[in-house]
Write a structure and sequence with these properties.
Elements: H1 2-24, H2 33-46, E1 49-54, E2 58-64, E3 67-77, H3 104-120, E4 126-134, H4 143-148, E5 157-168, E6 172-174, E7 177-180, E8 182-191, E9 195-196, H5 206-224, E10 231-240, E11 246-247, E12 250-259, H6 262-282, E13 286-292, E14 298-300, H7 302-312, E15 321-323, H8 334-338, E16 343-351, H9 369-386
Parallel strand pairs: 3-4, 3-5, 5-16, 6-15
Antiparallel strand pairs: 1-2, 2-4, 6-16, 7-14, 8-12, 8-13, 9-11, 10-12
Helix pairs in contact: 1-3, 1-9, 2-3, 3-9, 5-6, 7-9
């Protein structure tokens, strides 16, 4: 263990500088050309082979151990968010309208540190380690196109980790089974008959119909879905009308559907469609329901989760290991990896005095957490490769 810590410390200054460079020059999904170049420059410096341009901006590095064995994949996402950072931060984005507000700069730098340490250990390793630097987790989902281009070919298992703002710094959390929801979206177009606001009897008011739809959608949660299942329907956008005295022709609703059960995920959109169309028709209007599926439910493999649990005990005290009981309703496209090969996704805490909100201008974390996320991935990989 001391050897691993010393090796990580040797690269820490370089990795910290890399994280800062990525943070200061954030890039959105499938635009991570400069980030990929930074990753490749580091991999060149430590002599690790890689393939670039995977799913446009993705990078896949490979380290082959001296002895034959299984293949494990470690994954980090590289993209930033379209938002401005708190200007009072010491380390801050230099690109207007873009910032790393979810820790992906730390994931990328941490995986680079993992590659550096494991490369020094390759003469003692049985098997192969692949490092997946992935674009576009936040929006379009870069994991799926990388899988389509062969990143999981020959891979026996995978680990991923996320810096987590609601978990205390130094605490590593694991979850058996379903960990994160499927983040699906929907769009509803409600059509009525426009008219003057003073004579609603001569019109068919799509605002009224849409309002009834927003309220009635919640009856699916309360009456159509078992209370033992988790399901969320949220309408986040309601757009219609041009003036206070005009009844418009059309209203657009957009929202998100979150589920943790694939059977529920299949049924609820159909229930929503039926409710929306029937309700609009009952008011004399019409409605079109569009279901926009996102990532699958992220389900951790039990054996892979046990492997991480075992690995954590090698460098983290029991009070710093947390077994998560309840899943999170956020989504993660690591789910595509987890439904293809046995996988485990891990939370690495970064909270100090109070919870750190992701996707917020004030999001920030201490560079020391790069060591924790790196060692978590390293230990998990080595434990996996060491098991029959």
């Amino acid at each position: 263990m001391n050897s691993l810590i010393n090796q990580a410390q040797k690269y820490y200054s370089t990795i910290k500088t890399l994280r800062h460079a990525i943070h200061e020059e954030p890039e959105l999904g499938f635009e991570e050309f400069k980030t990929a170049e930074k990753v490749k420059t580091f991999l060149d410096s430590i002599g690790v082979d890689y393939v670039d341009g995977v799913a446009k901006t993705g990078v896949v590095a490979t380290i082959k151990g001296k002895f034959p064995g299984k293949t494990i994949l470690l994954r980090a996402d590289m993209d930033a968010l379209a938002m401005d950072e708190d200007p009072h931060h010491t380390l801050k984005s230099k690109v207007k309208g873009k910032m790393h507000a979810c820790g992906h700069d730390g994931h990328t730098a941490g995986l680079c540190l993992s590659a550096a340490v494991l490369n020094e250990m390759k003469d003692d390793i049985s098997g192969t380690i692949k490092f997946m630097f992935q674009p576009a987790e936040e929006a379009d989902g870069g994991a799926y196109p990388m899988i389509k281009e062969g990143v999981l070919d020959g891979v026996d298992g995978a680990f991923g980790a996320h810096l987590w703002g609601s978990s205390p710094e130094g605490v590593v959390s694991i979850k058996y089974g379903a960990m994160m929801a499927s983040p699906d979206n929907f769009r509803i177009t409600v059509k009525g008959l426009g008219g003057h606001g003073s004579a609603p009897q001569l019109a068919i008011d799509p605002i009224l119909i849409a309002s009834q739809i927003v309220v009635s959608l919640q009856t699916i949660i309360s009456r159509k879905v078992s209370p033992l299942e988790s399901c969320v329907i949220t309408v986040g956008k309601f757009h219609g009308g041009t003036a206070p005295n005009i009844i418009p022709e059309e209203v657009i609703l957009e929202g998100t559907l979150r589920t943790l059960n694939n059977d529920v995920r299949k049924v609820v959109p159909n229930q929503m469609k039926e409710l929306v169309e029937t309700l609009a028709k009952s008011y004399g209007g019409s409605a079109q329901f569009e279901y926009l599926p996102g990532y699958p439910v992220l389900v951790n493999d039990e054996r892979m989760t046990r492997i991480t649990h075992k690995a954590l005990k090698e460098f983290v005290s029991d009070d710093k290991i947390r077994i998560v009981e309840k899943p999170d309703m956020g989504g993660e496209d690591f789910a595509y990896i987890a439904q293809t090969v046995p996988s485990n996704f891990i939370y690495v805490g970064i909270m100090k005095d109070k919870p750190i909100s992701h996707h917020h201008p004030d999001f920030n974390f201490d560079d020391q957490n790069l060591k924790v996320i790196s060692e978590t991935l390293i230990r998990s990989a080595l434990t996996f490769l060491g098991e029959n």
